[in-house]
Amino acid sequence: MNFMDWITNLDRRWLYLLVGVFAIVPLIFPLGMPVNVSPAVQSLYDHVEGMNPGEIIMVSMDYGPSTGPENDPMACALIRHALSRDLRIVMLALYPIGGVNEGIQELQRCVGDLDPPNGVLESTKFPGKIYGKDFVYLGYKDGGLATMRQMNENIHEVFPSDYWQTPVTEYELSNEVQGYDDVNFAFSVATGIIGEWWANTVNAQFGLPVAVGCTAVSAPKYFAYYNAGQMFALLGGLKGAAEYERLVLDNYPQAKADTEEQVFYAAKGWDVQSVVYSIITIFIILGNVAYLLERRRTRMQL
Amino acid sequence: MLKKKIPVLLCFLAGLLPIISFFFTSPGDGLREANDTLEQWLVVVSGFALLLGVISVFQVNLRKISNRSKGWVNAIYLLASLVIMGAFGLMDAFSEMPGWGWVGTSGNTGFNWIFDAIFQPLQSTMFSLLAFYVASAAFRAFRARNLEAGLLLAAAMVVMLGINPYVVKVLPFLPEWTRWIMNGPNAAAQRGIIIGAALGAASMTLRILLGIERSWLGLQEGE
Amino acid sequence: MSFIPRSALSKVLVAAPFLLQASSALAQEEEVIGWGIVSDNVAALILFTLFSGVVLYQIGQARRGKELFIRRIAGLNAVEEAIGRSTELGRKVMFVPGIGTVGEVETLSALSVLKHVAKHCAEYGTPLEVPNKDPLTYAAAREAVKEAYLEAGRPDLFNEEMVPYLTYDQFAFTAQVTGKMVREKPAANFLIGSFFAESLLLAEAGQSTGAIQIAGTAQVAQLPFFVTTCDYTLIGEELYAASAYLSKDPVMLGCIKGQDIVKAIVLLWIVIGILVLSATGSTIMQDLLNSSLGN
Amino acid sequence: MHIFFAMAPLNTPDGFGIWVGAFFTLCILSFLYKDNPFFRFAESIFAGCSLGYYIGNTFSQTIVPNVLEPLVHDGHTPFISWGWWVLVIPIIIGVNLYTRYIPKIAWVARFSLAIYVGYYAALEMMLKLQGEVLPQSADTIISLVPRGTPMIDWFTSIVVMIGVLCVLVYFFFSAEHKGVLGGVSKVGVWFLMISFGAAFAYTIMGRISILIGRVVFLMGDWLGYGA
Question: How far apart are CA D9 and CA A197, in angstroms?
Fold first, then answer.
């Protein structure tokens, strides 16, 4: 049987095998697929670089576990970038299913284990960074758009206590942040529609600069907001995550060391994504070549 | 005669309420309240319906076991896990009722353990099979058999090549093209489908409310 | 567990902007305590009245015996072919009426196709299986199949196990149905109704067994998968026209005609709107669609 | 390298859960090769425990808080107070579904179904007319003369407009598709095909990241790679 016959009658399990193998290999041996930083991503990095120490970023966890591989690395890279630059972070979650867990998971991944009610406040990964002073996690609040509107009036009313049920007024940082005016910009790590609300409500109506990290599937929709100037930066899917992560890792050795300790980070995901896409592309092309040759052969026989 | 007329009439009346309360307000907001109450009721009704399904599952699987028909052992596993998880779930639910604390505590460990260790991995793995299936489906379907299939293939190729970092180095405009296809022709087609389907659904709804369409009731078509 | 598009939740997320708009409209009207019109929904009220009026008129016309034409829908012509092949091969027909509730119009359309399919199966004595995810859809599907067998004069062939309930979980349901497809190799699969991420899992599993597959859904996100893996796909509105097409019932065809007329009006409105906007820069036609009484 | 030597400890409750999760993950993945007893086992367990889960879920989310608890604790006088009836009517409608098991009055079960279908179908009609037909049509109305918007955006809008109109024409049922109508609807089909091809290819990304999630679970949580 020649190659073309093989391709035409390909057993689909060969494809399954290739997809499976290339979903595993990059996790162990990162392939380092090239990453071209796009302007939409560069602008987030430049913005953070341009901030003065002590300024505050609001990070909203607007996704759940199923899009974790895409969204987690975005949150991580931003938290590490911010803490490396002595900026402060207020985190919260608006996504109803699982956002709150993603928040605590990614925060602890970046700063190390925390137990504020029992006095474990200092980050092990970023020594000297203290919960409540340099970063704080307010937990989850339902209501979506309505909540976002309310936060413009008074964040303390929306989040009276933090993730561990400590009143927000007890921590210096959360006490200080009362409205959108108190933060430099908001970063929404989003799946679905919540990131759009940040753009068309919080940015459009209240004037807070907004950046979004969204899943690849919703990226085309989000780029329309980016092009319209309703968000100043956009990370789209694993690609966007890998680009931003690359910028941070190239410039901050601590972030690089921490990130590369993890089983999974954006660059590896980008490897998997681009390799699997390439495999599918190659097979589609081969399939078409075989199909066209076959058609020509039958025509010549006629 | 009643057997046919009553359900059709009930369907019509139940449908009238959301329509009227969508367009009109009434003294004391009574319309909206009535509408909300009916919706609340129907949520409860759908809760009762689940038991219909459970009965069917028991019927089918018990028969399988007693006939020793193919796969009867799996039917035992199925029923056993249903009973165990169902019991944990009921304990969990009733523990919320005041005075029922003795049945267990809310968020009991058995329920959560099965959820985390069995249910959740099964669910997400089944979902992840799609990664393999999209590959084989794309390989088979994207062939330039005729003009339509060729357009399908061409659009897919632009998107797929636009993701490949090596190709993008040579053809840097591809990601931009991808976005254009997604926000242009793709959005157009979707919008067309949505408007058409919404009108189709509206027409179907009228047929249902007027009792013209009633195969779902197990009634003869027509009038 | 965010990826489960539990239909209720996904509906909330999708409908959220709209609901919020509606609730803010209500908030504005707190003072209104008499009979009145919800001002934000005036455009919809006009559309609804127009729609109902046109459709009812067409139904009246149809009753008076006016001949009505309906264009060919390939997927529906293939229904009998698919059942015929199953009969020849002596294998079963599988019909999955989606995973939506019976309250969804898509599911109801699927059920009327199901009844048609069941009737043919009864006539030819071809085994049929209709696995279900939603319990109320299950109840309705069972009624529809039972009635079909009765109408075909073969109530003896109907049994409860033809319409089994499987489970309420989207992917557990999918696992069972794909398992059945691979093991029992039905010669024809109908995947008609409201489908979500499982669409491709079901269609690809069915494809691998060589079954003829006819799909139909109005879920825009799932159509690409059905179109590429099934032999025929009813796209969006074609699904809603299916019952009229299959039954050739003049009253139903009247409805289809009415819906076409409204579609033509919408089209015309868009075209006029474009012309007005281009010529004068006025967005009046657009505003009327978004309009409320107040502005 | 320390791969494969740091598997989750089997003897802790946490570690045991991970092993069970990994086992079931592999059972499902084995279906890719072919149907086998492991997959069938996992499938049965999945079916059973998911249905059990939703029984619990239905009771804890709906039946207990909306029916049983208020019925027992809100102090309504049975048969007399309206509040009691408000709680009992849905139970009657719900229980009525089961009359199908009594052959003589099986047809009564349709009443409940009819109310449910009538309500939701009508609600869906309202949501579709208001939430889909009107805004989507409004968005399609754009100026043929570019007014201040960048050329590329204007061009995209024109393409969207043409596409929407052609696709809608494709959906005309009451006239034969030939002549002009046939030509326009043909263009509509082209738009549909481009859309399906692009959307399919695009969705692959999301599916791959779900697979990554599972692989990370197997490699990281179970085998302990990177721990």
Answer: 44
Tell whether C36 is covered by a domain: no
Q: Supply the pTM of this predicted model.
A: 0.92
- Is the separation of the CB atoms in A15 and B136 below 8 Å? yes
Chain C CB within 8 Å of residue D38 CB: no
Q: State the average pLDDT over residues D203-217.
A: 92
Residues of A in contact with C2 (CB under 8 A): 63-67, 95, 97-98, 191
Host H or E run for residue A10:
none
In this structure, are C125 and C266 located in the same domain? no
DSSP string of A47-63? HHHTSPTT-EEEEEEE-
Residues C95 and C47 occupy one common structural domain? no
Domain containing C50 equals 41-70+250-295
By CA distance, what is A219's nearest residue in B?
Answer: B179
- Are both A218 and A278 inside the same structural domain? no
Instruction: Please give the pLDDT value at position D183.
Output: 96
**Contact between B143 and A19 using a beta-carbon 8 Å cutoff:** no
- Decide if D205 and A269 are in contact by the 8 Å CB cutoff: no
Q: Are residues A82 and A168 in the same domain?
A: yes
Nearest to A65 among C2, C9, C17 (CB): C2
Phi, psi of A230 (to 5 degrees): -85, -10
Give C19-64 pLDDT, tens digit per residue: 444 444 444 444 556 788 888 889 999 999 999 999 999 999 999 9
Show residues of chain A in contact with B140, CB under 8 Å.
12, 287
Number of H helices, E strands in chain A: 14, 6
Q: Is A280 on the interface with C (CB under 8 A)?
A: no
Q: Verify that A276 and A257 share a domain, yes or no.
A: no
Domain count, chain C: 2
Is B200 close to C236, i.e. CB distance below 8 A? yes
In a domain, C56, yes or no: yes
Nearest to C208 by CA among A109, B140, B66: B140
Whether residue C37 and residue B59 make contact (CB cut-off 8 A), yes or no, is no
Whether residue A9 is found in the same domain as residue A121: no
| Chain D CB contacts of C61 below 8 Å | none
Where do the DSSP E strands lie in chain C? Answer: 36-37, 93-98, 128-129, 188-194, 212-217, 232-235
- Give, rounded to a whole angstrom, the gap between the first and last alpha carbons of chain A: 23
Determine contact: B218 vs chain D, CB below 8 A: yes
Asked if D51 lies within 8 A of B12 by C-beta distance, the reply is no
- Give the whole-angstrom CA distance, residue B61 versus residue B64: 5
Residue C201 and residue C216 in one domain: yes
CATH for C189: 3.40.50
In a shared domain, residues A39 and A178: yes
Least confident of A102-111, B46-55, C280-289: C280-289
- The answer on C171 and C265 residing in a single domain is no
Domain carrying residue A175: 35-264
**Residue C8, domain member (yes or no):** no
Record the tokens describing residue C121, joined without a space.
């199966």
Pairing of strands C128-129, B24-25: unpaired
